[in-house]
Design goal:
The chain is of the alpha/beta class. Helices cover 36% and strands 23% of the residues. The chain has ten helices and 15 strands. Strands 12-11-7-10-9-8-15 form a seven-stranded mixed β-sheet, covered by helices on one side. It has a six-stranded parallel β-sheet with strand order 3-2-1-4-5-6, with helices on both faces. Helix 4 runs parallel beside helix 5, helix 5 runs antiparallel to helix 10 and helix 6 packs across helix 7. The two termini are 28 Å apart. The mean pLDDT is 94.
Length: 337
C-alpha cells in the first residue's frame, strides 16, 4: 500500500460482493480490487476477469497475500468470524458485512486480537451511519434540537426474501440494522430486549414468522420499537421517528419526484436495499479507504458488531421464552472508546 492506493481483496462474490467490487473499482478513488475469492470458483473467476483481478484459491490465501493490503468480507454469515480473525492476526484492515459472527464468544476473541495489535483494524458494514438522513437526525439529537430523546419508532419492510429464509434471520440479517442505528443515534447501550407476538401476514411465502415486533430498553430508560416485515410488504421501506421532550425527528424519504395526475399525488418507493442506500454504501467505502490511509477508522467497530450480536442473541431467546431478556456485555476495551 502506498500513500494513495489500497490494494483490496474481496471474499464472497454474491450479490453483495459484486456490488462492493464495482464500488471499490469505479466509485472509491483510493482503492483497487486486486484479488477475489468465492467458494464457487466459476463466479470468482468471472468477477476476476471482469475487473482484471486475481482469483484466489481460498479466502485464507487471499488474506495472507502480500499483494493485498485490506480485505472485504461479503461471504456466507458462518464464515465471517474465521476470516476476520485471520485478518486481525495478519494486522490487516478488514471490512466485514453483518453479522460479525454467529456467537458473542467469537466477537470477544476478535476484540482481544485487535486490542493486541493496538489499533482499530475492522469496520462493520452498518452503512446507515453514512446515510444523509440518519446523519442529520444524529446531529439534531446531539445539538439538543428536540431535547432529550425519549423513544424511537421504526420499521424495516421488505417485499420478499430469497429461498431458505428463516425466522431468526429477521433479527440477524434484517433488524440488525435497526439494532445498530438506534444505539448510534442515542449513544447508549441496551438494558433489555423483547420480541412480541403479532398477527401473522398471509402474504408470507415461507414458514417463518412475519411480521415480528421487537422492543428495546436502553440503559438510560429510552424505549425503541422495531416493526420488521420480511415478506409481502408494499415496497422496501425504512422508517424511523425519534420522539424527544421538545419535538420529533422523522427520517426523510430519499429524494424522488412527486407526481400529480388524475387527481392523485404519488411518488416512487424503492424495491431493494441496494437502490435505497446506494449513496450511503458509496460514502461508507470512501470513508473506509480514508480511514485506512489515516490509520483512523470512523465506521462501526468490532465493539459495535459485538453489541449487535449479543443483542440479537437475546432477542432470539426472548422470542422463544416470550419474556424480556437482559443484555449483558463485557467491559469495553480502550481502543473502542
Amino acid at each position: 500500500m502506498d500513500n494513495h492506493t489500497i490494494r483490496v481483496g474481496v471474499i464472497g462474490c454474491g450479490a453483495m460482493g459484486k456490488e462492493h467490487v464495482e464500488r471499490l473499482t469505479n466509485v472509491v478513488p483510493q482503492t483497487k480490487v486486486v484479488a477475489v475469492y468465492d467458494y464457487v470458483q466459476k463466479i470468482a473467476q468471472e468477477v476476476a476477469e471482469k475487473y482484471n483481478a486475481t482469483s484466489s484459491d481460498s479466502g485464507e490465501a487471499l488474506i495472507e497475500s502480500n499483494d493485498v493490503d485490506a480485505v472485504v468480507i461479503a461471504s456466507a454469515d458462518e464464515t465471517h468470524a474465521g476470516y476476520v480473525k485471520e485478518c486481525l492476526k495478519q494486522n490487516k484492515y478488514v471490512f466485514c458485512e453483518k453479522p460479525l459472527a454467529l456467537t458473542a464468544k467469537e466477537c470477544e476473541e476478535m476484540m482481544e486480537l485487535e486490542a493486541k495489535q493496538g489499533h482499530r483494524l475492522l469496520q462493520m458494514g452498518f452503512n446507515r451511519r453514512f446515510d444523509k438522513g440518519y446523519i442529520e437526525m444524529k446531529k439534531a439529537i446531539e445539538d439538543g434540537e428536540i431535547g432529550d430523546p425519549l423513544m424511537i419508532h421504526s420499521a424495516h419492510r421488505n417485499i420478499s426474501q430469497a429461498s431458505g429464509f428463516e425466522t431468526d434471520y429477521a433479527i440477524t440479517r434484517v433488524a440488525i440494522h435497526e439494532i445498530d442505528i438506534s444505539r448510534w443515534l442515542l449513544g447508549d447501550e441496551y438494558e433489555e430486549v423483547q420480541v412480541l407476538k403479532v398477527k401473522q401476514s398471509k402474504r408470507t411465502s415461507g414458514d417463518w414468522l412475519n411480521p415480528q415486533l421487537m422492543m428495546f430498553t436502553t440503559k438510560s430508560g429510552q424505549r425503541i420499537d422495531v416493526e420488521v416485515q420480511t415478506d409481502g410488504a408494499y415496497a422496501y421501506d425504512i422508517r424511523c421517528q425519534v420522539i424527544g421532550e421538545d419535538g420529533t425527528l422523522d427520517l426523510p424519504d430519499p429524494a424522488v419526484v412527486t407526481k400529480r395526475k388524475n387527481q392523485q399525488v404519488s411518488y416512487g418507493l424503492e424495491d431493494h436495499w441496494a437502490s435505497r442506500f446506494a449513496d450511503s454504501y458509496d460514502e461508507e467505502f470512501i470513508e473506509w479507504s480514508k480511514g485506512i490511509l489515516n490509520d483512523q477508522l470512523v465506521g462501526a467497530s468490532t465493539w459495535d458488531g459485538y453489541a449487535s450480536c449479543v443483542t440479537s442473541d437475546e432477542l432470539i431467546q426472548s422470542r422463544k421464552t416470550g419474556q424480556p431478556e437482559k443484555v449483558m456485555m463485557i467491559e469495553q476495551a480502550e481502543i473502542y472508546k
